[in-house]
Amino acid sequence: MPLSPDRLDRFARHIVLPEIGGVGQAALAKAHVALVGVGGIGSPALQYLAGAGIGKLTLIDDDSVETSNLQRQTLFDEHDVGRRKAELAALWVDEFDELADIAWHIRRLDAANAAELIGDADLVLDGCDNFATRLAVSDACVAARIPLLSAAVGRFQGQVGAFAGHLADQPCYRCFVGDAFDADDCDTCAEDGVLGAMAGWVGTFAALQAIRVLLAPTGGFGDPQWGKLHVLDGLQPSLRTMTIAKDPGCRTCKAR
């Protein structure tokens, strides 16, 4: 479907990029991204995905805004304390772009409801804060044959990785972390701390990688970097990349 004159003007700075162009922008307009978590990572990721013209966004978060969130969760302000993050994020999208298709769920994603919540997304971006949810998201993505971008941040370091475990030669997130983290007992930023700007860096980098994945079929923005984990260091500013191998014994994707 061709873009209207108003949309052509809105996304003109994308369209003039040969790596995106009109074909790429039209592909973004047709894309559906599900975000798990709209907190420190999800806030800036959502803002830049909406800004990029993603056609449909599904937001999944069961949490409410707390005062301690305001140091890094850029969608919210003092008046939002106590209100549900998913609803507030959806309201922000509605005001930012009236043509965006937005769905939101005030539910905690788990193994029982993951398939229902991620639905027919073209890509899932997971910015949640616990391993049990991350692994439930990964397992559901493999089963539904949906690619996954997993993003995490703590203290002065962040990670963003692209996983396509539904493909025979590609790892899933469980190949990376194994089975030891299925429980909820993991470190949190409340215990360890996190630099607010690091969450912003990770969230915007995750949005960039999401656009890369969505535009891979058009060929202009490079390969989707499956199995590549990018480690962002804020103390001694740097970015390094490692390759995650497919685990032949992985209980989730070994048969794929």
Question: Secondary-structure blueprint of this entry?
Answer:
Blueprint: H1 5-10, H2 12-15, H3 21-30, E1 32-36, H4 42-51, E2 56-60, H5 85-96, E3 101-105, H6 114-118, E4 123-126, H7 131-144, E5 148-154, E6 157-163, H8 173-177, H9 189-192, H10 196-215, E7 228-233, E8 238-243
Parallel strand pairs: 1-2, 1-4, 2-3, 4-5
Antiparallel strand pairs: 5-6, 6-7, 7-8
Describe this structure in words.
This protein is α/β, with parallel strands linked by helices. The protein has helices spanning 5-10, 12-15, 21-30, 42-51, 85-96, 114-118, 131-144, 173-177, 189-192, 196-215, and strands at residues 32-36, 56-60, 101-105, 123-126, 148-154, 157-163, 228-233, 238-243. It has one domain (31-243): Rossmann fold (3-Layer(aba) Sandwich). α4 (42-51) packs across α10. The mean pLDDT is 94.
